[in-house]
Batch of 2 targets.
Target 1
Amino acid sequence: MPRPPPPAWHLLGFSLFLASVCVSLESAAQGNSAADALNVLLIIVDDLRPSLGCYGDKLVRSPNIDQLASHSILFQNAFAQQAVCAPSRVSFLTGRRPDTTRLYDFNSYWRVHAGNFSTIPQHFKENGYMTMSVGKVFHPGISSNHSDDSPYSWSFAPYHPSSEKYENTKTCRGEDGELHANLLCPVDMADVPEGTLPDKQSTEEAIRLLEKMKTSTSPFFLAVGYHKPHIPFRYPKEFQKLYPLENITLAPDPQVPDGLPRVAYNPWMDIREREDVQALNISVPYGPIPVDFQRKIRQSYFASVSYLDTQVGRLLSALDDLHLVNNTIIAFTSDHGWALGEHGEWAKYSNFDVTTRVPLMFYVPGRTASLPGAGEKLFPYRSPFDPTSELMDSGRHTEDLVELVSLFPTLAGLAGLQVPPRCPIPSFHVELCREGQKLLKYFQLHDSEEDPYFHGNPRDLIAYSQYPRPADSPQWNSDKPNLKDIKIMGYSIRTIDYRYTVWVGFNPGEFLANFSDIHAGELYFVDSDPLQDHNVYNDSQHGELPQSLKP
Ligand SMILES: *[C@@H]1O[C@H](CO)[C@@H](O)[C@H](O)[C@H]1NC(C)=O
Ligand SMILES: *[C@@H]1O[C@H](CO)[C@@H](O)[C@H](O)[C@H]1NC(C)=O
Ligand SMILES: *[C@@H]1O[C@H](CO)[C@@H](O)[C@H](O)[C@H]1NC(C)=O
Ligand SMILES: *[C@@H]1O[C@H](CO)[C@@H](O)[C@H](O)[C@H]1NC(C)=O
Ligand SMILES: *[C@@H]1O[C@H](CO)[C@@H](O)[C@H](O)[C@H]1NC(C)=O
Ligand SMILES: *[C@@H]1O[C@H](CO)[C@@H](O)[C@H](O)[C@H]1NC(C)=O
Ligand SMILES: *[C@@H]1O[C@H](CO)[C@@H](O)[C@H](O)[C@H]1NC(C)=O
């Protein structure tokens, strides 16, 4: 197994509080042995919008993720490239945008369909790391060749929790005492098949792997993919108590906005399939859902987030107990967000901030926080049921716009591996290159060829997202059109000041967008309309903007 190269970091104007710890890191780097290389723990959550204490949410209890944030750099404005699982994951795990992976649905494997692109874990594996996958990292199925991209990405077979198979079965006890396949699914742990839940099993497996890594001679890259708060909201019922229904508000903008083009709306078909939602006989495509049920959905989403938080807490506390916190980078993110009634929607599948914006934070030992002293823990487990858990120093934040596609070069750079070179256009024939940015300057890491992206005004930073549609009006497959049915692509840019989207003709055979064929447009200004309810596209001079939509 090849040894990893020494971290190619050089210190640049680090702040005083980091000065002493940086010295020890620098000497560690000079050691140039596998034992000194930094490990990586990448936590990927499914459908998690930044409804977290550390993102300013006053209701949600997430003390363990907040504690991670307090020792991290947190990106306030991080965006996914497409708000649906498989396309987003394949995009950020390969460091390429959906127009390069050519995956907008669930039905192709990029290595045969687009190009033989390297992945983040593959890059670490090829540089001497033990790479391990637990839970949902790649989206399962065709999009990762039914193998989570094994053997290319992983040192051994990925782990999937055995209780995952019950997620969509009748395991939710309804008011009638019978078991149903519901959307709202608070469970009694004594009552569920196998007596456990997938995320709990994943945490246990991840901890078991970390214990094994303690004695490993190679550094590790461990990716842990959590399922909650993805639907159904199947979580231990005690978490419901954190969110009394009378304290749950509706979305601030629960109506479908007047000026929203029909093509931009997605009819959230998947929750309608759950038995409890079906029983409500909700009108397709616009609803609405009765307000008491809206509150219950929000309650269960937030309860799922707190349950997830306890799993993250157990995992990080174990990392700490194993004394791995001083040499492990921790990255935390999600594949995309989820609308909890905003714009009358209850799903991902759109270009709004509420579905494209994701939590993103990086803990880098000695850089974003001082190393723990002897006997000290950075990540003691914190119970969301303990009210004192609310008090938490917020750590360092940046409001700069960043994209998930930048995760690959950033993790490579932070670990001191070769950062993939910028991709040529097109890059289908290039196996290892990056379409995102190296976010190294946020860590005071010197970057020999710093991205021109960062030289200008932060107002010029852009995050790109896109979403396909089969038709101009919402229909049964508007949420998740198959490639052959895509007729329109919504290309969207977000800057610190606005979100601008054009829905243009798209030919799925040629993968060609026609920017002369504009079906609809959206423009929202962040300051005056942060929730994106007042589309001012028609009022604006937008003749020149479409040029900037191509990344
Ligand atoms: C794709 O990349 C993998 C990993 O580098 C390599 O083993 C494989 O041979 C490549 N496949 C093709 C068709 O080039
Ligand atoms: C996908 O999986 C199949 C079945 O295991 C295998 O034969 C094929 O080589 C894999 N594709 C690639 C590109 O590795
Ligand atoms: C619910 O709201 C009330 C009134 O604001 C507050 O006193 C109480 O602490 C809240 N309960 C929870 C669990 O947040
Ligand atoms: C913008 O103009 C188009 C074309 O005239 C029209 O169909 C659409 O309803 C207008 N949108 C808004 C928000 O006024
Ligand atoms: C469902 O709603 C439709 C109208 O929206 C109504 O015609 C139908 O009777 C309802 N079905 C049930 C079972 O309530
Ligand atoms: C991390 O801590 C362990 C145990 O305290 C120690 O053996 C190891 O040398 C430390 N590593 C670094 C990089 O500081
Ligand atoms: C692009 O759209 C314009 C306007 O609808 C149309 O005239 C043109 O033929 C289209 N181009 C292609 C290549 O389809």
Target 2
Amino acid sequence: MKPDNYRFATRAIRAGQQPDPTTGAIMTPIYQTSTYAQEGIGVHKGFEYARVSNPTRSALEANVAALEGADHGAAFASGVAAIEALAKLHSAGDHIICGANVYGGTDRLFRQVLSRLGLEFSFVDTRDPVAIESALRPNTRMIFIETPTNPLMHVTDIAAAAQIARRQGARLVVDNTFATPYFQRPLELGADAIVHSSTKYLNGHSDVVGGIVLTSDGEIIEGLRFLQKSAGAVPGPMDCWLVLRGTKTLHVRMAAHDRNGRRIAERLHQDPRALRVFYAGLPDHPQHELARRQMSGFGGMMSIELGDRERAERFCRATRLFTLAESLGGVESLVSHPAAMTHAAVPQAEREAMGISEGLVRLSVGIEDVDDLLNDLDQALPKR
Ligand SMILES: *Cc1c(COP(=O)(O)O)cnc(C)c1O
């Protein structure tokens, strides 16, 4: 099918997939094979070795590419493996600008692994386009942003960042894990590539670790295919199949996450026991107007400030439906404590400066019945 001709829900379910040519199986098979028979030397069906390509992986890559409006996808074994591949399109001496409030694992990869190999990084508050502009150097090759961010829901103006990148001749990469293509399509705003931790909403069922890059840039996809082959951080066919099964319901799940997320954010906003609620969908979010401009919904991610560590701990012990766990984006609701969990590696002073206090808890609102979730939060919030 030509995915461009169809709307989002149809693409989610159909793009990248045809009935299996040998059996007619309606579901793309899990091609659990490392290699492929060749009819003669150099005569094959386009598949030679499974690190290089696998039909289940190709189906997933085409499917998510269609959702992001990209020509190509390249799947990796995890979100950070996908981000590493994007950085490795560059060479020692090249400079990358990265958002200051990105996913902790991205920060660790850049600071503790890739800077040892000679890539240069600047970490800036990308909410302010002027800050991005002032961090530019003659050797800046990539601007890497995440929007909205984890856990404070900072929003970066994608179109403004894309203009800065274009003027510089650098690439803009957007980590679109939180918003998903259902709510935000960065390529349409000028980004050169999008990365996802497909572990999160794309898969949606908390049973896979995976990553994927989407792009329409021929040079980027060529570089990524070369890295899939040469560095080898590729996902197995079973994991690709699970994500492909997840994306079939992305539109249904995201609409439900958004409904529950808005209800819960609004309720918490009115509850004096939550001192602050960080959710881009609330009118008092400092970048609400920008968020409304570049996103069509706000999903189920939010953070709340409870005042101190003791209150945060009491809350995390008391919730019954919101399970205390890392990760996000699954159908089940989770709660986490960023200072002790996802951002534990960041020194406390830096954490506090970023606004990740000891009293902050993050919610990944699932798609259970919203009244049950509201009741759970109500009984768990510590009295003031
Ligand atoms: C989880 C996450 C990552 C890393 O992905 P993994 O699949 O865990 O390697 C990157 N970016 C964001 C925004 C994430 O939430």
